[in-house]
## 1
Amino acid sequence: MGRAAAGRARRSRRGSATTASPGAGSRGGRGKKAGGSRTEPGEKEAAPGPDAFDLGAQSGRWAAFRERHRLSCEEAARLLLDAFEYRGLVKHTGGCHCGAIRFEVWASADLHVFNCNCSICTKKQNRHFIVPASRFKLLKGADNLTTYTFNTHRAQHTFCKTCGVQSFYTPRSNPDGYGIAPHCLDEGTVHSIVTEDINGKEWEKAMKEHKTIRDILFHSQN
């Protein structure tokens, strides 16, 4: 073989080794994910989830907490947020008589209940405590509710189609909240009840003069 031919052969062999190198690398560590696990051909790499957040020195406690209680990251985060946002409150559950309507509500164990003397509240003995909508969750029965309105139609008097019980409603004073019937709560979470009369016969005047209602209006709108 002449010198020129030998030089061409050596260059060709070097070129083959160079082009083979990436393929060899992919065979040796094909698409490795972060943390050393491998991605199989055609498998998409998972997007970083909440676990990817830097928890710093609390990462060990977070992992142990989830493992101990067998919680997903979302479930553990919800417990943490509930504990912070609803501190000082308890979770009450309740519903109508037949069980078609069920709900949960975060409120104090010591309830401040309003006893209104307007025409409809007198007829149905509508004693209730008020919570923002964010603290109320209807668990079941949305399709089994019916609503009665009158006058301004701002108050939504919802009740069960089957048994007729009103366990909660949307009050005129707090259209962005709920009025909950304390007598429709399950036993075991209420510590005490204080009842306060409201002059619903003179509703506009009562709303202007009543400090408790004004405070509830302020807190529910902020």
## 2
Amino acid sequence: MSRLGPCLSPRPLLRGRWAAPRGLRRVSVAAGLRRGPAGSSTASVAGMEELLSRSVPPLPPYETKEKAPPPAELRGAEFVRYYRALEAGPPRAELLTRLARDFGVDHGRVAEFSAKVLQAREQQRELGALLQAEDRLRYYLNPQYRGLFQHLGRLEGGLRFLVELRGDLVEGLATKAVDGPHVKEMNGVLKNMLSEWFSTGFLNLERVTWQSPCEVLQKISDSEAVHPVRNWVDMKRRVGSYRRCYFFSHCAIPGEPLIVLHVALTSDISSSIQAIVKEVPPLETEDTDKITTAIFYSISLTQQGLQGVELGTYLIKRVVKELQKELPQIKAFSTLSPIPGFTKWLVGLLSSQTKELERNELFTESEWQEISEITGDSTTETLKKLLNNNEWVRSEKLVKVFHLPFMRLCAWYLYGEKHRGYALNPVANFHLQNGSVMWRINWMADTSPRGIAASCGMMVNYRYFLEDTASNSAAYLGTKQIKASEQVLSLVSQFQQNSKL
């Protein structure tokens, strides 16, 4: 799941349902996906309940919380072995569901101490008594399984396992293999815990070069979700001259890429991905006088279990500082980002407008007439078919006539389509949150089948003006105001004049 900014959804790393992410496979040792502990493909419910009752430590009474002995390491190791031995799919889903449902918050205690907090306020008791009552309530709001996760996080290899387990949770919730409020709450609790454990103080920035270990190069290649690596020559180019590749690793998981950023060093802001990732022999030496611009063209989260954990923003900031130290002459920092979802959005608009209005109002009359003459059909069904199968890109006439309307439609999709007041497109939302400017939309910037299918070949530059990123980010997060260039605003204005939603 990934794109520049994240998807940050990592590239699908699952081999079959719920297999461990590629980066975590060697953690499974020989267990792989063995048959269940009871010798059959489905673990017995009784065995599951017994294991959970042994593995999940009870929440100690509030009075003795600091003195409670830690759970035995053997219990945590037993849980890890048991979980990894379960077959992917229903057996793991059953265990996760029982863990979330049966070892959550003690709602009785929460109700009891909520009442005591209200009582302390109503009786206007001294501040110390009120704060203690609130602290007790806060303590009992912790679900019991949180203690298990804390214990596992302290074990050798435990952090890897928890990332793997959350990867299963994320995948299970997406496919409805696991569902319900208890499981969703547990997913959120574990995500928050991982956010603390993977904060910037524990992360190491590492640069990838052709001299990096083969295992690291292979992982970088496998994890590339935006512009797939074709072969080793392509990989050598992406870490060679006029290119930089960086990743974050964790001090407890050294050498394991968690999130990867690819950078092109250029003399101007790139408008086409073909010029960056095309297969050409790498140059032996860089001419630093030609480097004035850094283009962030791909960022990929490699671990499904870290979805939603803020890593991309910090990686970009760290890389900017690294590049400023190495190449202080760089003055421009920009992305060349895909626009996932645009084609799907456009096809949906065509369908809804045809159904509701029995006519199309996304194009001007002259544009629609020209499109109809080229396709030989005045209905939107033909246009939808062309968009769905990418056939339109074979026609120079269609590429030409689609240029202006698709550019203004794309500008509106990025600038005007919102979710809870923020940009609907996840890549746009990511970079706008970081304080970038929606700077330029580029026509036929990605002519690969994937680029045509996702965004009709368009890409967008998000420009990072370093002196303005903090104020831009505050304006976007606070007032939902999008900073955009004259080109983007002009296209938005054209959309408002010529198209109707």
## 3
Amino acid sequence: MSAVLELLLSLALLALQASPCRGACVEVDSNTEAVANEAFLLGCISCKMRGEVPATAYVEWTFKAWDADNFTNLYSYVKGKAFVSDARFYNRLQWNGSNHTDDLQDGSIVILNVTLNDTGTYKCFFRRTLKYSNFEYQTLSNKTVVVKVVPKFTRGLASILSEVMMYVSIIGLQVWLVIEMVYCYRKISAAGEEALRESAAEYLAVAPESKEPCAGVQVAE
């Protein structure tokens, strides 16, 4: 009993000393079609390649309208504080990235009340500082998102075809399962009937041989 208690105590100590697990980081491309008068998520994810190295990062966004020649500063997020640089987007941008950490990996933002003038090219910059034991190393990564604003949501032909194919696949799979069930039922039923016939035939063949010959036997008085 004492050995079991010692084992449980050791496992508990190991669990307390183990570092908490962190979710995996996956870089996903942002959507590019926004709908006027609705909210739109500008996605920007930059995963840290060396997950075991502590780091700090801050995010900057720039914007170039469809009829402009140059990019202008749009938004920045540094040490948990956001700052909107472009007056056209005042009170219309919200942070939707990493929270409660300076080691940012998700720099996504949300545009509220999208207008047709928001059509253009957006750039997201991750400025990250990796902190090794003896030195620091700075990296810069960026992503570009070309956004088109439409008056209302329209589904593309590819999306419609993919949904139709999905439903066709589901119906086809269900039909195939029904056919397989009917086939298996008939096969099992036929095998059962054949087994019954064989058992009956064996019984009829054995029954006459198993009868004891009583004729000609006299009971001694």
